[in-house]
Design goal:
about 325 residues; Nucleotidyltransferase, domain 5; 2 domains; 5-stranded mixed β-sheet; binds 5'-O-[(R)-(carboxyoxy)(hydroxy)phosphoryl]adenosine; binds zinc ion
């Protein structure tokens, strides 16, 4: 059995996990900083890195104790993300790997999200696949040809979809993070009340753009201040999710990919999950809700696959806030 310790600290979650033989999660710990950043309406980088420093030792100790056994490698997110936050995780991982004399495996955060679809009952890593990654920092369609071979087919030109949920939630005076608040509010609203724009809807590009949608919500609220907040939330969510479906279907047609992975924080959205399940006609790999947001089990799972192929790092591993996939 190969047991990997995963460490994720790229943004506002300090996460530690132990994963056995690739997909089986033995321990999954996430210390979220959401409450700390909520009063600022978004993540404050300096506060984030200090908070990672505060909790990482204790979390590591808890993870290793509950896994109860030898750790064979340490996998860590080395980018992209907030530099100060990445530095905490990467340096901690290097020290552990050095003192335990085990390999250090650097993992790209987005590759981690891709592997979140294979955790536990998700089945063994299966490629080729098309991946739609939807989070607070990314909106990307990625062609995954083989393990660790990726081609980015389309990305957002401005805001990420999760970021647009967060920004629109602020306009609607809903709590941070915006995704779950908007989803809740939308349950009592009419998704057809307002027709918000879907960027690049009629073109065959696989690019996304979400800043115009956020601005359209802002103008709608200025023009009709008495408009039902629930209707605005439902109509915004409808537009935000609709364009994800439109572009993903287009990418499936263009690539003939035999399966679809959808991962990242926004993959927890109930409307998105429902529409994917009813409208996508290739096998769909969706992580369970627990593994949509940032976690370290996904980093350990991707690290396991890298370790098998000897794609390991060393003490010269450094974080890179703009790391390319
Ligand atoms: O993957 P993630 O945890 O962190 C990043 O790597 O960015 O994603 C966080 C994002 C936030 O923007 C949050 O508002 C969004 O995921 N999110 C959701 C939902 N839950 C979280 N967006 C829509 N619906 C949700 N249920
Ligand atoms: Zn993420």
């Amino acid at each position: 059995m190969t047991r990997i310790l995963g460490i994720e600290s790229s943004c506002d979650e300090t996460a530690l996990a132990v994963v056995e033989d690739g997909p089986r999660v033995a321990v999954n710990l996430v210390a979220s900083q959401i409450d700390i950043h909520a009063e600022f309406g978004g993540v404050v980088p300096e506060i984030a890195s200090r908070q990672h420093m505060r909790v990482i030792s204790q979390l590591t100790q808890s993870a290793v104790e509950s896994a109860d056994g030898q750790i064979d490698a340490v996998a860590v997110t080395n980018g992209p993300g907030l530099m100060g936050s990445l530095l905490v995780g990467v340096n901690f991982a290097k020290a552990l790997a050095y003192s335990w004399r085990v390999p250090l495996v650097p993992v790209h955060h987005i590759e981690g999200h891709i592997y979140s679809a294979f955790l536990n009952d998700g089945g063994p890593p299966a490629f080729p696949a098309l991946a739609l990654i939807v989070s607070g920092g990314h909106t990307q369609l990625i062609q995954c040809d083989a393990p660790h071979e990726y081609r980015i087919l389309g990305s957002t030109r401005d805001d990420a979809v999760g970021e647009s949920f967060d920004k629109v939630a602020r306009l609607l005076e809903l709590s941070y993070p915006g995704g779950p608040s908007i989803q809740r509010c939308a349950e009592d609203g009419d998704p057809e009340a307002i027709r918000f724009p879907r960027a690049f809807e009629k073109t065959d590009t696989l690019e996304f753009s979400y800043s115009g949608l956020k601005t359209a919500v802002l103008y709608e609220l200025r023009k009709n201040p008495d408009r039902s907040r629930n209707d605005v939330a439902a109509s915004f969510q409808n537009a935000a999710v609709d364009i994800l479906l439109i572009k993903t279907k287009l990418a499936l047609r263009q690539t003939n990919a035999p399966r679809l992975i959808v991962a990242g924080g926004v993959a927890a959205n109930s409307l998105l999950r429902k529409r994917l399940e009813s409208e996508i006609d290739v096998p769909l790999l969706l992580p369970t809700l627990e593994y949509c947001g940032d976690n370290a089990a996904m980093i350990a799972a991707a690290g396991h696959s890298r370790l098998e192929r000897n794609l390991v790092g060393g003490l010269n591993t450094t974080p890179n806030s703009g790391l390319a996939l």
